[in-house]
């Protein structure tokens, strides 16, 4: 199971230069990846919140090996053609190290949809997510994109440059007990079950994935990503099918000095 740092870009970490230096430290300490939250704002006592794409660009420039990406981007909050350009450009900048985490997002944590006049209907945001993912895949191909959907329209446009990888890996987030995001994830490159309570819950989710793939093991290259709190046993989650473990940092108690020390200590699994 590979190990990644997962950082909320809040307050002391709302500075791209600081996070870029943390990326360099993580690479030196042997971590495999660095992923960041994608939020516009957060609840008190959090005050400052940085943009994930500018921050990831700083990390890309400060590192050579780390896998990087937003974890996760609420795609319905973004115009899909703009997201094609952002992801492709960042992938070129990083030399092909971007992984795109995607999900529906939620209004309940910070009101990011309702307070900006966007839909809070999960069904509508799921439709927007699926349409956007189709546009992303088509846009990354370098071929003209023609899309006339319920929510978005793209009229015969080539969106160059292409990502350095050709296609950026997509990890789909969702609650492990909800079959819809699991089915969506099976169409892409990985599944990030959020709010996991146990390794048994993860094992049930990976079992559903195997049923969808109709095989005894998950396909080679398909990732299962878990957020690990300090008291969780990494080996149990790896045995349940996890291929990536992300450090779960509490944003309300997080301090830069503690984050730096945790990163410098290197992966614990």
TrEMBL record:
<feature type="domain" description="Luciferase-like">
    <location>
        <begin position="21"/>
        <end position="232"/>
    </location>
</feature>
<dbReference type="Pfam" id="PF00296">
    <property type="entry name" value="Bac_luciferase"/>
</dbReference>
<protein>
    <submittedName>
        <fullName>LLM class flavin-dependent oxidoreductase</fullName>
    </submittedName>
</protein>
<dbReference type="InterPro" id="IPR036661">
    <property type="entry name" value="Luciferase-like_sf"/>
</dbReference>
<dbReference type="GO" id="GO:0046306">
    <property type="term" value="P:alkanesulfonate catabolic process"/>
</dbReference>
<keyword id="KW-0288">FMN</keyword>
<keyword id="KW-0285">Flavoprotein</keyword>
<dbReference type="InterPro" id="IPR050172">
    <property type="entry name" value="SsuD_RutA_monooxygenase"/>
</dbReference>
<keyword id="KW-0503">Monooxygenase</keyword>
<dbReference type="GO" id="GO:0008726">
    <property type="term" value="F:alkanesulfonate monooxygenase activity"/>
</dbReference>
<dbReference type="InterPro" id="IPR011251">
    <property type="entry name" value="Luciferase-like_dom"/>
</dbReference>
<keyword id="KW-0560">Oxidoreductase</keyword>
């Amino acid at each position: 199971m590979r190990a990644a740092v997962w950082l909320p870009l809040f307050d002391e970490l709302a500075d791209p230069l600081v996070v870029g230096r943390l990326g360099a430290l993580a690479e030196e300490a042997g971590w495999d990846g660095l992923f960041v939250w994608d939020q516009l704002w957060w609840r008190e006592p959090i005050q400052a919140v940085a943009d994930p794409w500018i921050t990831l660009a700083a990390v890309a420039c400060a590192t050579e090996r780390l896998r990087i990406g937003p974890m996760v981007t609420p795609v319905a909050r973004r115009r899909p053609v703009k997201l094609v350009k952002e992801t492709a450009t960042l992938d070129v900048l990083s030399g092909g190290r971007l992984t795109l985490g995607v999900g529906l997002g939620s209004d309940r944590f910070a009101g990011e949809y309702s307070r900006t006049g966007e839909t809070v209907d999960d069904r509508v945001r799921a439709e927007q997510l699926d349409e956007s993912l189709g546009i992303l895949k088509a846009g990354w191909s370098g071929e003209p994109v023609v899309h006339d959907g319920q929510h978005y329209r793209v009229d015969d446009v080539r969106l160059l440059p292409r990502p350095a990888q050709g296609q950026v890996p997509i990890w789909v987030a969702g609650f492990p007990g909800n079959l819809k995001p699991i089915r969506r994830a099976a169409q892409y490159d990985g599944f990030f079950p959020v709010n996991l309570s146990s390794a048994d819950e993860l094992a049930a989710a990976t079992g559903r994935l195997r049923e969808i793939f109709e095989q005894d093991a998950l396909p080679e290259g398909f990732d299962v990503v878990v957020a690990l709190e300090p008291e969780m046993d990494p080996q149990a989650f790896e045995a349940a099918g996890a291929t990536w473990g992300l450090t779960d940092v509490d944003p309300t108690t997080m301090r830069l000095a503690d984050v730096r020390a945790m990163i410098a200590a290197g992966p614990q699994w």
